[in-house]
Amino acid sequence: MAEAYHEYRGVAEEVARRAGEVLLEHYGRVEAREKGPSDLVTAADLASQRTIAALLAERFPGHTLLAEEEGVRPDPDRPFRWIVDPLDGTVNFAHQFPIWTVSIGLEHQGRLIAGVVYAPLTDTMWSASLGGGTTRDGKPVRVSRADRLQRCLISAAFPTRFGSDAPRQLALMGRFSTDTHSVRRSGSTAWNLATLASGGADVCFGTHVHPWDVAAGVLLVREAGGTVSALDGGPYDLYSQEILATNGLVHDEAARAAAAAWGSSGSSTEES
Fold it and tell me: What is the pTM of this model?
């Protein structure tokens, strides 16, 4: 199966590049509209998704698609599921803040087998397949070797709108900003995970995330030697709304820190 996984990975790279070309054509020339409070969508998101959907359907007509825009949902009877964010970092894109990506992952019967994250502005491609390792622009990459949280740079995927969940979000920010190398909030969860996979950060946490935000990045991290779990260190569920990814060496420490901060600030079920 390794050869098949590699084939899927190659196709995902090609499709991500095509989607990137579409996004670059729109960059700086589109206006955003709100799907909900602080939740933007642009014509670029839609054009990118339609390009990805068409190309994947042409190559793999028996596969199904789970994607962010236009209510696309998968056929549960098909074993192959592409999980796509056609533009991860729409708010950044709309404001011409230069961190946004295309994220394409492939799940087979509940197991992630291929994934790419592509940053069109820098033409940077992170890519992985199950058992095939992770690369950045074709060169193998690994997670960092930081062995204590105080030596770690943390990347955060906070919700756009904190709402009534602000106490927990601020507790996480406070904990991970203390006795570490600080926290970065890029605005693209896929970019956060790709950066972690290639050693640019040591820990990444996220709340209120969706499968299309993280599917490709989860595989990138795993294949680069990292660890992915629930925020409190428990078993990871791609279809939950939280994630903790690390270089593996600091995973237990990071999970304890997150659980302590998360638990000390009460609970909320509000999504954003």
Answer: 0.91
Number of folded domains in the chain? 2
Which DSSP state fits 248? S
113, 140, 167 - which closes a domain: 140
Picking from 95, 123, 140, the residue at the C-terminal end of a domain is 140
Residues 110 and 170 in one domain: no
Nearest to 15 by CA among 63, 80, 84: 84
Which is it for the CA torsion 89, 95, 96, 99, positive or negative? negative
Q: How many helices (H) and strands (E) does the chain have?
A: 7, 14
Tokens of 210: 């969706």
Same domain, 153 and 102: no
DSSP code of residue 101: E
pLDDT tens, position by position, 214-268: 999 999 999 999 999 999 999 999 999 999 999 999 999 999 999 888 775 544 4
Q: Does residue 59 form part of some domain?
A: yes
Coil/strand/helix, residue 29 = coil
Q: Where are the alpha helices (DSSP H) in the chain?
A: 2-26, 43-59, 90-94, 166-176, 189-197, 211-223, 251-264
> How far is Cα 230 from Cα 223, in angstroms, rounded to an integer?
18
H or E stretch at 136 = strand 133-136
Is 270 contained in some domain? no
